[in-house]
Amino acid sequence: MHPYLPLSFADDLERNARWCPDHPAYVQGERRISHSQLLARGKRLGSALYKVGVRNQDRVGILAMNSIEYGEVIAATQWAGFILATVNFRLAAPEMAWIINDGAPRVLLFEAQYLDVIEQLRDELTSVETYVCIDGQADWAMSYEAFIATGDDAGPPCRAREDDIFCLIYTSGTTGRPKGCIWGHRELRQLVQVDAWLVDLQAPDRILIVMPMFHVGGLVLSLSQHVRGGTAHLYRQFEPEEIIRGIERDKLTVLLLAPTMVQMLLDHPAIAGADLSSVRTILYSAAPMPSPVLRRAIEVFDGCGFVNLFGQTEICMFCLSPLQHKPNGSEAERRQ
Questions:
Q1: Quick check: 335 pLDDT over 80?
Q2: Alpha-carbon span 156 to 324, nearest angstrom
Q3: Whole-structure pTM over 0.85, yes or no?
């Protein structure tokens, strides 16, 4: 007997579509998609993937920057029980080829900006049977919208289970070749639930996701916001002024940033006089936070709590809570 309900991410998608159907799931600039639309698009995309031969626990590769389409691919794999296999767009072409071949996706979705790279690699990508191009097309790659149009509203005849693998995420490979880390629905759902609890994410929250969704940080925190029925605001790259204006315009409440990003925000002239009052929590990760930068950030983002997330692709995250941040405390408190 299970001591808890054996749920998958498919259940989260359906719950959000039922209880907050019109609430935005993702916002990207002027574009947005609601939770009900995300479920509908995810099921239709899952059906299209099934029709070209993808089955439960087959891999689906994606090479793209943060976008609503990326979120739709995540939703399709979440609902259907396909395995999301992300590819780091910052890698050189041979490194991309190694990761794609190691992950062995049957379908590869990629943005048009990588069309030339993928065309050069096609003969090497032995597992890929179908190519789908986001915002573009080629003789050998169907356009994303045309591909989705081949799917059925009912979705594929398979649905994710708790003990399914959800995603395959690769490490940075600092000590050798990148390693593919397997995260199941059960394990990753527990992680996003814990992170949502640690940060006290709620449905009205609007989290900034500028960290790439091909890696665990951006992916997990966007899903942590969704598990509470909230909104993830997607940015494709970090531009300090654009982020500051986004905070003011969209009243962002939670920011996920690297310490260098925090420093760049503080050093930008646009921060002076900006309305930052909506921000209640800043999550920082990926590197140590210098104490002088932390002190400045606490002063500029007055009343905001700071949470230090740390961990690895392979394991759960840990954190230093707002109450444990004492940059002006004793040496022992600062070291702790």
A1: no
A2: 47
A3: yes
